[in-house]
Amino acid sequence: MSLEGTSISSTAILVQIVGSVALMLWGIRLIRTGILRAFGASLRHALAEVTGNRFMSFGVGALITVLVQSSTATAMIIASLAAKGMIAAPAALAVMLGADVGTSIAAQILSFDLSVASYVLVFVGFFAHSQCTDHVRRQIGRCLLGLGLVLLALSLVRVSSAPLRDSALLVQMLTTLGNEPLLTLFIVAVLTWLVHSSLAVVLLTTSLFVADVVPVEMGMLMVLGANIGGTVPPIIATLNASVAGRRVAIGNAAFKLSVCLLAVPFLDVLKDAFAHYMDTAGALVNFHTGLNVVVALLFLPWVGVFARLFERLIPDTVQPEDGPATRYLDRGLLDSPSLALASASRELNRIPDQIDDSLLALTAAIRTDDLAGVAVAKQNHAKISSTLDSLKFYLSEVTRGEISEDDSNRAMNIMLLSANMRHVSELVLNAMVLCEARIRDQARFSEEGKRELLSLLDIIQQGLRLTLVAALQGDTQIKKNINRQRKELDRLVEASWQEHFRRLSNKNPSSVTTSALHGDLLRDFTRIFYHIHAASKVSL
């Protein structure tokens, strides 16, 4: 009977600890999403602007990670900037070293016993998030609510785990793991990867240590495992990013892995050397802080050397023609709408270049009866359709959560712009198919008709190249130029119709043979520029 009661009691304790950890993870997520939704664009701008030297980069990385409570989020922002060439590799590595120290500072702050304050923070945060209409204030309320939940969860972990200190089974298990340090490192690293938060694992370990459940040697080993496991999410998150972004995540992992593995044989020495500090409640968070500071001191002066080394070990790769349809739609940024929309804009910026390739193929088909471009136009349209479909679903996910009115309008404008680009691509492909049928039927345009169509295509290409510039920069002068081009195109279309009717009345054989095709192309060219003109009116 007593055995059954012990089993139930152990199960209840386990459920309480797991539930408390889940609450802590949710609180950390609320803090991260609140900061990114309120200040994501500002943080990204700060990283891009003030990373002129390694020490400034280190400080900015630490500060931002303290705010967002996630070195993974910092890694994703850095990967995005590195992919655009907005931050050099040495500065990016310095930011990540700062992010690791920032995680330690966050752990120091959250390790204080502020269980009473947690209830106040939950109340104030809930009230601000539910009652404020201003977007930034709502997100600040979300952060306060998350901070309160983290502090509350930590107090629950300490209370729930207290009975475990008398468990003979737990003592035996910890003793066994203590004799297998590499196995312990692996288990804790996997746990950290699964919860995607080294901060959460460090705080959990600290709470168990304070409750006398985990001895200091095992706690130090678990902190090392958490440090190693914390490098995995950034690597996975940057797998689909550019090579420059992957280098940052892998480089930071190499720094931490080397120091953590080297520290394992000297844990007893470290414990004895700092015996006076190992009896305090903050021993493990201090060890975590010291560890990341040592990593920074060892590698920060040499980030330039290591950046060149990683460039050799992880060389740039050429994007294959049949590679992924999208390159910049980063799902890791969905928690920060402003950053996600920046990625969506960058993805959309690729579309006009692909359409321009199809227009060049169409020009060659009209000028020289070249069929080689037909396959290019069809392949480009398939890629464009796939990219815009992915973009549409990505934007729907961005707008599904909380989003400011400005970001909501921006998302809608990106959708409108992408819809116009899709129509342009479809019309260009349709014109290409019509020309393909003409060439196969060995029908030929008259020289005058060919010159008229080519002059229209030239205006279309000019307008297409200016469209996204007008949308992204909101340049009124460029928009006026596109409007003038539309009027010029309408005039040339009208003149082409008149000249075509004149050639028909003169019974020009080529004009008679291609009369229907000529009319279809004039119609498609007019519709193409209509969508280009509509796209230029959108403001991003």
Description:
The chain has 23 helices and no strands. It has helices at 2-49, 54-68, 71-83, 89-110, 115-131, 135-161, 168-178, 181-195, 198-210, 216-229, 232-237, 243-263, 267-273, 283-299, 303-313, 337-348, 351-368, 372-398, 405-440, 447-473, 476-505, 509-513, 515-536. The chain is elongated. It has 540 residues and is mainly alpha-helical. It starts with a helix and ends with a helix.
Q: How would you sum up this structure in a few lines?
A:
It contains 23 helices and no strands. With 540 residues, it is mainly alpha-helical.
Write the layout of secondary structure elements.
Blueprint: H1 2-49, H2 54-68, H3 71-83, H4 89-110, H5 115-131, H6 135-161, H7 168-178, H8 181-195, H9 198-210, H10 216-229, H11 232-237, H12 243-263, H13 267-273, H14 283-299, H15 303-313, H16 337-348, H17 351-368, H18 372-398, H19 405-440, H20 447-473, H21 476-505, H22 509-513, H23 515-536
Helix pairs in contact: 1-2, 1-3, 1-6, 2-4, 3-4, 3-12, 4-9, 4-12, 4-14, 4-15, 5-6, 6-9, 8-10, 9-10, 9-14, 10-12, 10-14, 12-14, 12-15, 16-18, 16-19, 17-18, 17-19, 17-20, 18-19, 19-23, 20-21, 20-23, 21-23
